[in-house]
Design brief:
By secondary structure, the protein is of the alpha+beta class. It has a single domain, classed as 2-Layer Sandwich (Beta-Lactamase), CATH 3.30.450. Helices cover 33% and strands 22% of the residues. It has helices at 2-23, 48-65, 67-75, 119-131; strands spanning 82-83, 86-87, 89-92, 97-99, 136-143, 149-159, 164-174. A hairpin with a 5-residue loop joins strand 5 (136-143) and strand 6. It is globular and about 90 Å long.
Amino acid sequence: MRSLAISFTVLLVLGLSLISAGCMQSDSSTGVPTPESTTVPQEQYTSNETLVAFVESAVAYVRENGKEKALAEFSDPNGSFIQGELYIYAYDFNGTTLAHPINPEKIGVNRINETEGNVGAFLRQVNEEIRNGESFHRIAYINPAHNGTVESKLAYTVQMDDDWWLGSGIYTGPADLPAAATPTAGAD
């Protein structure tokens, strides 16, 4: 009786192994993809830790090289502070753009009252939050990698001194905004 139970168990294990092996093969006559033949494109993913490390590296660069050299490097579209979706932008607390590699035409422009893309509201909000010690900010911004779709963006900022701050951000998915609050390109 015991040998019959062992034989049954062995046959069951072998049968399940054969069945599962067969399920993993492609049947070209049906055109049904198998796990080995299916390729799912992976989205570029930037973690919160990567975002923080990127901004902190910019802070270290300022401390090592000085404000003027750092702002020039941050504004360079081919510089070392553009990595995928990450780039460093800098503003003073009056709302003037100090560095921006994606919108260099905005450098030197005071944007605190700018309504396009809700930039002024964003700057006022971030200015207040930074002064209160907050570093993470949820904003809505057009993602150029997704045909200009408005998406939620997590910004991380650091106050450099009483006059200015710098930051960067990562897209985190769709943004549900009322039509009147939909930003346009060039916001951050």
